[in-house]
Design a protein that fits this description.
- This protein has 527 residues and is α/β, with parallel strands linked by helices.
- 29% of the residues lie in helices and 24% in strands.
- It has a 7-stranded mixed β-sheet with strand order 8-7-16-17-18-15-19. A 6-stranded mixed β-sheet has the order 9-4-3-13-21-20, with helices on one face.
- Strand 10 and strand 11 form a beta hairpin.
- Helix 4 (166-181) crosses helix 9 (251-259) and helix 7 packs across helix 9.
- The radius of gyration is 24 Å and the shape is globular.
- This is Prenylcysteine oxidase 1.
- Belongs to the prenylcysteine oxidase family.
- Keywords: FAD, Flavoprotein, Glycoprotein, Lysosome, Oxidoreductase, Signal.
Amino acid sequence: MHHLPIFFLPFSFPDVITNGSETLVGEGSSLLWSLPNWTQGFASAPEVREAPKKIAIIGSGIGGTAAAFFLRQEFGPAVKIEVFEAGTVGGRLATEDIGGYEYETGGSIIHPLNLHMKHFLERLGMSPRADVPSKLAIFDGKELTFEESDWFIVNFLRMLWKYGFNFIRMHMWVESVLDKFMRIYQYQQFGYSFSSVEKLLHAMGGDSFLTLVNQTLEEAMLAEGFSQVFLNDIVTPITRVNYGQSVRINGFVGAVALAGAESGLWAVDGGNKLVCSGLLYHSKAELVPARVTAITMKTRPSKTGSAASFYELNYVGEAGAAHSMYDIVVVATPLHQGLSDINFSGFSPAIPSHFPGRYHQTVATLVHGLLNVSYLGTTEKPEDFFVSDVLTLDNKDSEIHSLSSLEPVKIPKDYSRSPASQPKVWKIFSSQPLSQKNLQQIFLSWDSVSEKRWLAYPSYSPPHRRTPPFILHDRLYYLNAVEWAASAMEMSAISARNLALLAHHRWYEQTGKIDQEDLHTRLKGEL
């Protein structure tokens, strides 16, 4: 959810080049053919039944709003799409106003190969935020064990001296995972969908991806020959800042975390949450400000005389309790303790209100204040201290997961990062709320403190062999099942696209595009 660039991965991923309506991928990738026009939906497919009249989406985060966007694309302009949201549009993408400027408190950084997020910006007329150079350090709870130099060659030689070629090999390992990951865009552009997280992962990376999900990142990387010291000193700080957890998270989400330590990362000008409101508007979906309390299976006689099934949503809004019927329902909020209380009734087999597993609490504390650089054990003068991102080792002395100076979501002209001698906004990630004592240790003084407690992503403790299903019932879908493989904005967008295709194919009984892994064979036959 929270990604930070790290200096020592200088190599680039395969180039992604857009050419008119096609996307071409460079030779470093296995994707060597063009992809069809991104805006092409499958709503024009031969209809064997009447189109759905009403679709409900529960949740207006990036998953729910992307689902509205893709469902509109697949089912056309006639269907009514309603998005239920009890809180604020954006979900775990959120900002906080401090001193008249907005700062990210939730999901903050996007990878250059996140093609859905890039496409959203193009369609919505948005742009990436101006880049501000950053500088990184690693903190063991007492002192800085590493501080990035302004000179690349110095950083390179330091890493080479201490860890050999581990860091270069780490980049190559992550690149090999991403190379397979990119296959999902091909499948989706050709209209393929998958009925479970496992089948979607298998289509991308075969058995190797299923193995990654069911072993720890530590196990996966040790098996690849990485040293334990490198895992402790370098990999763990990355997993702590991105997922608030150690290298004992699953290997797949670990690879996603390491990809979030690459160069070229970006964010949305004005705030990442703007993508959600933009997708909602673009989809022409209606926002229903209400909390869904129950989903019930209902049957009614149809025109042909046979029974037709519907889903009744019971919800509570400002006007009180109400209910409405839908042909298709997408649940785009986690069905887990503390995050949802939707009761499912009338289903056989029964659908649980809460699936196994729990979500991990990450506390984001935004402080506008003057950093106490001596807290970090450095002897540098505050006016010479330009470190922007402090990652931490996994030991008892590290009470925080990370400490980062923030830029506003809208970068002013001629903006440059100021040294630690000047007050600025810092974001601290921790598993527990910071005490007054903690704040006094980290800061010399402060003007404001803002705390946001997120149930931000699953607590990953593989093997997680009971991943929730995408299909809860015939036309009832669960988008957030994908988070148990990895939680990220792009993963939610991929799941949204998958479910829009899946809902379309299942509605029109087009089973040839569901759970098929023969895309490469078919394309070779067509060429």
